[in-house]
Amino acid sequence: MKRRLLLFGCLQSVFLVAWTSAAVRSYVPNFRNIAAQAGLTDSFPNGGSEKKQFIIETTGSGIAFIDYDNDGLPDLFVLSGAGGTNRMYHNEGHDRFRDVTKLLGLQSSGWAQGVCAGDFDNDGFTDLFVTYWGDNHLYRNVQGRHFEDVTAATHLKQGRRRYNTGCAFVDADRDGHLDLFVANYLKFDPAVTPGPGANPYCFYRGIPVNCGPKGLPFDRNILYRNNGDGTFTDISVPSGVAEPEGHYGLGVLTGDFNGDGLPDIYVACDQTPSLLYMNKGGNRFEEEAVIRGTAFDQNGKAMSGMGVDAGDYTNEGHLSIFRTNFSDEFESLYRNHGDGIFDDVTLGAGLGQNTKYVGWGTSFFDFDNDGWKDLLLVNGHAFPEVDRLHIDIHYKERAILYQNLGKGRFRDISDHAGPGILEVHSARGAAFADIDNDGAMEIAINNQNEPPTLFKQAENPPGHWTLLKLTGKRSNRSAIGAKVKVMADGRQQLSEVRSGGSYLSQNDLRLHFGLGSATTVDRIEIEWPSGVRQVLENQLCDRVLVVTEPN
Amino acid sequence: MQATRVFALCFLACWGLLSADTAREQGIQAFSEGRYRLALEKLKTASPSASDPTAHVYLLLTYAALGDCKTALPGLANYAAVRGVPLSKMAGLAAVNCYAVEDDYGRVFSTLQALEARFPNDADVLYLAAKQHMKAFNNSTFAMFQRAPASYRVHELSAEIFEAQNRFAEAAAEYRKAIEANPSAPELHYRLGRAILLGAHTPEALRQAKQEFLSELKISPEDAACEFQLGQISLAEGNSAEARPHFDKALALSPEFVDALVALGKIDAQEKQFPQAISLLKRAVAKEPSNERAHYALLMAYRNSGELENAKQEKSILDGLQKPKDGEFSDFLKRLGEKQPDR
Fold first, then answer.
1. Three-state DSSP class for residue A225
2. Which residues are within 8 A (CB) of A131 and not within 5 positions of it... i.e. 6 or more apart?
3. Which chain A residues touch B247 with a CB distance below 8 Å?
4. Quick check: A332 and A325 in contact, CB under 8 A?
5. Cα separation, B70 vs B72, whole angstroms
6. What is the pLDDT of residues A56-82, one digit of tens each?
7. Which of B208, B336, B343 to mutate to test the interface with A (most CBs of A within 10 A)?
8. Most buried of the four, A32, A359, B45, B229, by CB within 10 Å?
9. Nearest-CA distance from B294 to chain A in Å?
């Protein structure tokens, strides 16, 4: 009898595993926009909605998930263009958010562009850096109770008005203190920038639109070294990131692309070749995008790169790069051979279908928890004037959801992925987090001149999952740059803790892994930025796992 | 007495010369101010001849400006044809306008051709050429719409105009009407397929475009461009195995087809057939040394085959090709430089 029960138990678990696998494979998501119910009803101004005079109105703003008070629930920080304020919304649980901007001292004005998070002073609370056309701001998180603007005190004030865009905290020299990379778009001065239609660079399909970026002067990117004493030093020139000239930088992505343990930096550039700064150690970078295969599309043509993310979408242990581009261009998927050499595999991966959208925020994420990273990108044309053309390219556009089919292939399932995906907005930044720690990822999107969107699935996906929160000790406290390999269900997945990314945005610093039908995680390998390696075995799934770097 | 007479004659002759010189200058001045009637009066007084070609050209330009092309044209045409004559470009431009007034488009374009050969970077010459070509295009279009409104060519031309304006859905609709009017006309299915692809790359768009290229091949079985497009569609569908035979066929039909060479080279490189890939791509860059696609594909093939030095060499060629041409940004940036944002 005992043997029969045992046999039944085994059969039952086989059946359950088989059922879960099948369920995961056939799962169709139902994304809805729950922003209004969640209390996210403030609109965020960002230039004209009918027409735009200047390029500053087109690039929009980022959005961030950060758990500023360490209560285990990611809060939401939304950036604003001129005429509004950036806002921090505290995650109250149960999919509700409360505006705490004033309480935290985060009221602002001006053209906020990008946001990135990291604990720059290693005090255990995540700080915020916000880029502007104008003065950037570093907000020090004071015990999760309020934010203090320490831009001047940390020597991050800039001598002139710059068009700062994407940013990322990155421990470039692995000294345990987070350095800071800031991309720059171009030199923009409304007093000397011509108006719509003023010259050939101020037209789109025959209609006058704001001028640029072509025809406007270039600027350069910036790397600040964290001195470890609460100040930063601009090392752009000696580090090599001030070169080369002639690029319009937007989205910033960090990652160890060649597996040498040093974080590299990728910059998605608009209408010019994108940049890949390879970290040579000793705070020295060399730009190698062309030869490494991430500068152009597969025809050697520079695209209008906007947002960018990295992910091991093939589960081969390499970080590949995905970049969103302009309409009439393919998106770009660069598959990493493993040594930081990439091939453009956009068409072969099934991503050669959507050419009418201007893509911005994006991330690899596993919406169905099947253990294969899917892709979401949000869209919206740069020029509202495009609607006057009455063609199938529009200022407000829907998102695109690609399901990872395995074997390096994706399928566009946007039409069947729920009403949220089909809502049209002129979206820019997008941030990803599991806001209620239930294993299903949510996505917040910053829309031009509208309230943000918050995508949530109507039902939880069937696959199991784990969510890892890492805390550094010898490494930076945010564990930014930590590489995590998760082995479960016969698969190995790789991810990295990352500041910045997407389009001028910040995802939750915790790492989410879908596990498919696996009920335990066989093995977790963590390579901390300090070089320390840590292995955890037989971890339970469907929970948040907090891991501290061993001494 | 004799001496007085001589003096008087000299005085009169000098006065005449002086007054002729004054009239010449006043005439030129009046022309440059757009006061053509006064210019004509003064320049006629100056009665310029072959010994003063500048004043003579001004007189002819004045006739042309006043609409008297009959008087102006023979002289203008002569001066336009002679190198080294001052104002010969202006004479040429005025001659073109006069020929256009007389609807003599044969001479309009032959004169323009000569001007473009002598002044290839001159904005005035290029502007007039563009304007006259546009006018000729408009005249022919109008004539076709008026005299052959039922022809499929009307829809074909409408489609091409929409296509040039990036209005691909409207272009496709016009191509469909043209096909309906003349199902066996060559090129139409090809152009329709291309318009569909220019508008979208959705699976439905790819399917429709594929159908059009296949239809075109029934009419023109040796159309290499159609085979190439079918290959491109297969690539967009992520199916390089299906793409290869189309590119092979395109190349067989048109051995000089550089894009087909590049496409095949890329597929070979993808399949790690590097010697084959590099050979095809080297053929491509030899045929079209300024083809950036070919150089980039060769760069990638060299890199992936481990030939890093060759890859770097291709990169430097590509860098040179992609460097903005002088004048593309520089003029505009120079103007911005008058009041540059702070550095």
1. strand
2. A112, A113, A114, A115, A164, A165, A166, A167, A182, A504
3. none
4. yes
5. 6
6. 999 999 999 999 999 999 999 999 999
7. B336
8. A359
9. 8
- CA–CA separation, A5 and B64 (whole Å): 109
For every residue of A289-328, DSSP letters joined together read HHHHT-SS-TTS-------EEEE-TTSSS--EEEE---TT
Average pLDDT over residues A529-536: 98
Q: Which two tokens stand for residue A177?
A: 């203190």
Which residues, in sequence order, are bridge partners of residue A512? Answer: A467
SS3 content of chain A, % helix, strand, coil (to 5): 10, 40, 50
| Residue B189 contacts residue B219 (beta carbons within 8 Å) | yes
Mean local confidence (pLDDT), A177-191? 97
Does B201 contact A352 at a Cβ distance shorter than 8 Å?
yes
* pLDDT at B1 exceeding the cut of 90: no
Least confident of A196-210, A244-258, A282-296, B46-60: B46-60
* DSSP 8-state assignment for residue B328: T
Quote the CA–CA distance of B18 and B30 in Å, as a whole number.
18
Q: How far apart are CA B297 and CA B277, in angstroms?
A: 9
Half-sphere exposure (CA, 13 Å, Cβ side) for B262?
A: 24
Residue A89 · residue A75 · CB < 8 Å: yes
The pLDDT of residue B83: 79
- Position B239, amino acid: N
Q: What is the side-by-side order of every strand in the sheet holding A442-447?
A: A31-33, A453-457, A442-447, A427-433
User: Which residue has tokens 């000299």?
Assistant: B10
Rounded distance between C-alpha atoms, residue B7 and residue B20, angstroms = 20
CA distance A476 to chain B (A): 34
| pLDDT computed for residue A202 by the predictor | 95
